[in-house]
Design brief:
Blueprint: H1 13-63, H2 69-75, H3 81-96, H4 105-124, H5 128-160, H6 165-219
Helix pairs in contact: 1-5, 1-6, 3-4, 3-6, 4-6, 5-6
Length: about 240
């Protein structure tokens, strides 16, 4: 067995990687990459979701208070999810007048808005498959490192002819570190995946509600419009 440096931890992560060789170091690098990828996706998707949730608040107030659909379109942020719905709805309205076969405007607009909403929801779901993959496979990757580490430890112990508890506990404990690392990588990925899926559902419900209101507004020539509750003014301090 390799002799640890004086004053160092003989059973730490560094010792486990040093004794595990290239296989343990490769597995550890894979787990680090998986963890970094999952955290990156969680933060970027959280930022993207929060941006659309903030756009929903503006769409419920500023857009529906506009005197016309074109004015409301101009007040929405460019390249925003709600601006995309309005743009696609107006484009479908213009395309309907160019159709040679008679198609009901209600169905044409409904299909166009549904496609636009589906594209937004699909974009929100990008990257979540990586979180699901990391959450389901990282424990097994760590377990693989543990199995290989235990095998190498037992081979060294057998070659040295030592079977005492101090000779077994150290190498086996070092091998179990890889399983612990795999679980540390998997748990945040699973929790983040479930949380982001729930927030995507909220975003999809808000987009569906806006799409329904927009559809009713367009097929009724502005006669059907959702009621916007204005916020109460702040009390004046005396």
């Amino acid at each position: 067995m390799a002799t640890p440096p004086a004053g160092g931890n003989p059973y730490g992560l560094g010792a486990a990687l040093e004794q595990g060789g290239i296989i343990a170091q490769s597995i550890f690098a894979i787990l680090v990459i998986m963890s970094a990828a999952s955290w990156y996706i969680m933060f970027t998707k959280l930022f993207e979701q929060q941006k659309i949730l903030n756009q929903a608040k503006k769409a419920r107030t500023v857009f529906w208070q506009a005197p016309s659909l074109r004015d409301g379109q101009a007040k929405l942020e460019a390249n925003s999810a709600y601006r995309q719905l309005v743009d696609d709805g107006l484009l479908a309205q213009e395309q309907h007048t160019k159709l040679t076969d008679p198609v009901d405007q209600h169905e044409w607009l409904l299909g166009s808005l549904a496609r636009s909403q589906g594209a937004i929801n699909s974009k929100l779901g990008n990257g979540l498959a990586v979180l699901a993959t990391v959450g389901s496979t990282s424990p097994f990757v760590g377990l693989l490192g543990t199995v290989i580490g235990i095998y190498r430890a037992l081979v060294k112990i057998g070659a040295a002819g030592q079977a005492s508890i101090d000779a077994v506990a150290g190498p086996v404990g070092e091998a179990l570190i890889m399983t612990a690392i795999g679980l540390v990588v998997a748990v945040p990925a699973v929790l983040g995946y479930n949380w982001l899926i729930r927030r995507n559902k909220v975003v999809a419900e808000q987009l569906a509600a806006f799409s329904t209101d927009l559809h009713g507004y367009m097929v009724s020539a502005g006669a059907v419009k959702p009621v916007v509750v204005k916020a109460a003014p702040a009390p004046v301090k005396k």
